[in-house]
Amino acid sequence: METYPLPHHQATVHLALFHPIHNAAALRSRLVSASTLAQDEAGNRERAAVDFAFVDARMITSRLHLLTAVQQALLAQADGALKTKTLHSEVLWMLEPGTNITDSLKHFGLSPSTASLVLVHIAPSTGQATAKSERTAAEDVLRRMAAAVEGEVVSLEALGRSEGGTLDEKAVRKVYKLNQDTALKGLQAGSDDARATLDRLVTSSVALKVAM
Questions:
Q1: What angle do CA 20, 24, 26 make, to 5 degrees?
Q2: What fold, for 2-211?
Q3: Domain coordinates of the chain in residue numbers?
Q4: Burial per residue of 165-182, b for 16 or more beta-carbon CB atoms within 10 angstroms, e otherwise
Q5: Which residue of 14, 16, 107, 141 sits 20 to 30 Å from the alpha carbon of 4, by its own alpha carbon?
Q6: pTM greater than 0.85 (yes/no)
Q7: From which residue to which does the signal peptide run (predicted)?
Q8: SS3 helix, strand, coil % of the chain, rounded to 5?
């Protein structure tokens, strides 16, 4: 897992990549069920147990791609302009090149067929934490992630890699409507140049989302 303190947002972001995962269908059912539970102690406890953004890793081209969506979600929250119900669901919406919330869940969220999954947890930070307390908090987040997902935690270096990684380049090009983009023409799919160019294009798309 990787942790990114964002003091200007008074937040800390935790990212973990699970590859492969073995309980996608059951986990998705759990998320749907948690959202319908009563606002009582049991319901709140179950929602807290799955309080993450569950992002299909095949659609993520790099850490920067995902962190840009996190940054945009935090900016929207600061402006009181969230388009979705939670900060974590806003991350998914920021990844979506269009404006349809349902499409963002379909394209970037957990599905029964998801094989690789990035979990994002955005926690408030007061700036008063010590190195020890930050480490303890990160360990607790990872424990909760691992309790929810049946799979192996692997390096985030696998993001954006086609061979031996998690990227579905064809799916990313289709969702971001880049098949005819001049920047990608002449570049062999799966090549380092193609993946680097794809990453720049989709990250730029996310970075501009707030202006839409």
A1: 140
A2: PF0523-like (3.30.2380)
A3: 2-211
A4: bbbbbeebbebbebeeee
A5: 107
A6: yes
A7: none
A8: 50, 15, 35
